[in-house]
Amino acid sequence: MRGKAVMLSIAVLAAVSFGLWRTWGGSMNKGGEAEITAAPFQTDEAHAVIDIDTKREKSIPYGMRGVNNETSNKEAFINHSQMIDEVNRYGRLGFIRWPGGTNSDVFNWRTGMPDIDYGAFAFGPDGTTHGPHTTFRLGQVKGGEHIADYIELLRKTNTKAMITVNTTRQTAEQAGDLAKYLYDNRVPVIYFELGNEIMFFTSSSGKSTPYYKTAADYLDKVRGHYEAIKRNYPGAKVIISMANSNKPEMANAFDKDVFAYPDPYWDGITFHRFEGDGKTVPEAMKSANSALEKLVPLIDTNYVPKFQNRNTPIYLGEQGVALGGILESTQYHGIYVAESILRLSAQPNITYLAGYRLHNGIFNTNAVRGGTNVSLLMEDAYQRGETVDPALLSYDSYYHASSASLRVVDGAVNYSSAVWPAQVTGGAESTKTGGSMPALYAAAYKGENGTRYLVVTNKSAQSQQISVRMDGKPVQAEMRKTYTTANDPAARNTAMQKEQVAIRSESTANPVTVAPYSVTRLEWSGAAPDAPREAWLYAAEPGSGGTVDLRWYSTTNATGYKIKYGTASKTYTQTIDAGQALEYKVSGLTEGRTYYFAVAAYNGSGESPASNETVAALSVPGIPVLRHAYAERSGKVVLEWQPVAGADGYRIAYGKAPGQYTGTIEAGNNAGWLVSGLDNDTRYYFAVRAYNALGESRNSAELDAVPRRLLPLAPRDLAIKQESGPSITMQWKPARTEVAEHNFEDGTAGPFRAEGWKVEPHPDRNRKVSGYRAQAGGGAFAVWTDTPQGQYEGEALVEWTDGTAGQAGVAARYVDRDNHIRFVYDRADKQYKLIKVTEGKEQVLASKKESGNPKRLYLFITVDGNNIYAKLNNEGTILRATDSSLPSGKFALYSSGPGAWFDTARMYAPNTKSYTVYRSTKPDAGFEAIAEGVAETAYTDSGLPEGQRYYYKVQAVNEQGESVTFSNVIRKN
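== Fibronectin type-III domain-containing protein ==
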């Protein structure tokens, strides 16, 4: 009793020190954030018994837990030294997904950048048309996020790859080249995913471009990608995308199609799940708890029995509470995902589990240079035509509250070879929607180094005492307790409070006290270490003098490594004990010969199987195949080549005459490049050669391309308007592209005509930029005189130099000062407003409150027929209205006073003159033009034979040329 009294006293002191004497409730403050009031902390501990059953063991894969990654459209550099340090400080991660999430829909792995042409197809007038352009500019300033950068991150963090293949915008050939590159560079790929959240690209989704008619159409069309990956990466596992489980209206139709598919060729499935939200924290917690209870039954009922192969592997690629919901990034978010892992890791079909994202998910990385947020500096650098050196950046990093809890659970899961069930009896209850459930949940893990782990989540505000038994006997060993806790379940870590939720660690004996709202890992010594898992050999680089440099990943509890090699595959005649080293230079080899290497890890319990076999040819690499050279944007050409084995890197040679190369670009170890700084309307000739330490290959065959100022973008939303018998009528929409830009760097108004506004350059010497603002006492409009006709979108970056109240923003359908529509931020009442002015009378069409008073905003206004959309930063539409009283007008900047200044302005509009329609009997090959010079956005193909399946796609054309890519492909049954 004395020990219990001491623990109770500690709990009481903790309660007082954290200021918990509040009552539960849920309300919204002025900023729209939840204000949490908590009940008096309960000091009476609930008691529970946890029974671990080691006889019911399920093996789990090495590195079961990993993360999604979304850095390509952020200021973060994926291979920045601090980024790598943060991943390593987190602890072991099994894999890092790339490009990751919605990034994969617009990212071109060849160039290492978000692709304008890829992005434009998915964003209509109500979406972020500017998004691809903004991220493309960011990518240029970063110098791209190349596949070689990703591989550097993997190798320096001992993690494997999870690859998302862009099946909507990239061909089977491109998927095959990606697989070949990864195989040639010995990248361990767990899964290749055929698309990200494909349900949003089907006709029934109501979102994005309907790239696929049905799930069955998706499975037909991506089979070519599957086969190309299999051919080029022996042993590859290729999985398909199911519908997100929290979207039942989509899942029912989409998944039903998948289950009924007659030839399930894939190697597994993936889906995403984000649930748990509400208007108040208690309501959202109830929702999250209910979602936890349904998680395993969802898989056992909705997936496993319906597959022809009931052993189908399942990878949960993204999961968490509702995105953007009241619980995101809170301590309760961490508890939710941690318990999801405990529940799912024991499910027989589950193979790998990912959280949400690495950057701004696992940890926040607010990139800074000289104390200034780098997003501002990157935009300025773009305007000056500069790039940013990542070595000059630092990151103000911290782990989110949710990821602090994930570090606790991953410290068990990713160091273990098996999971054991852990039955909880007794303890407190937590509320769920419509009832209650046990507050405690637990799972135990068999550590590869002989350590035994027990991970426990506590979803209640009550501390609980647990007695731990293993196979019916109390655990007698001294334990280490590592945990997170927060008396406020909505606690978040921030840049100002980086460790409001921190990881704590201490010694403990059995029974153990589990803190309120916590994730706890208990560990104790229990057995001799297992024999090591197999290592991964990721580098076998030939060098001069008959040497090969080998490097490999470490593996758990290995005390040493043996190198095995020979001159025939799987026939190793030589063995070298490398000790604990993770790299070794093998010497005494014969130049011109090919050698085969593998590595085996060992410890006192035995030796691992041999690693992957790696081939090293002691010769210069072969000649790469230059696949494509095509104009991208003004002064830019994209090159794509097929990689070759044994290459350490590639060099691009180019010039203005065939075979006469005046320029050379070092492209590193990549398989594509965006060549910039070229003259428009000039034909360039390109070749690529590969190199390694032994020399350089000959040039590839030559390709040529002509950069143009403003090629059209591929049309979007190709859809079937009518389909009957021998005919099909299709329709599509033109994509918008950036048609004009002005940065005010020359100190003039450029294309703007001031109306009540005089030009006054506003220099910022620290940032080396100039802007445009009204003089004191003035203010009104600056009208873009050559505004595109018809539908357009205008963008402006507005900043406030002081605290002056007033309105500033952008206007559309501007006729004159008394007739226009404007989207402004009003600093007087802290609101975004969409205002219509007719005959001098103002009407607020829509408004939204802003909690703070921002000093810098990207404001966008889009006109599309009678629809007006107001968009903010890269967040998409925040205000919308319908108006027919002002059918046309120009784009303008607006400021009611001198406090605001404009740093840049851009215009977006369609620039297509005609279209070419293509047809094939195959989904990804054999397309031929059947109609050229189509002026309308619709076409009918008739006189077709009955019973023949046809596929169609459309290309945009203007006076400068054709769009680089095509619309989505539709199918006539």
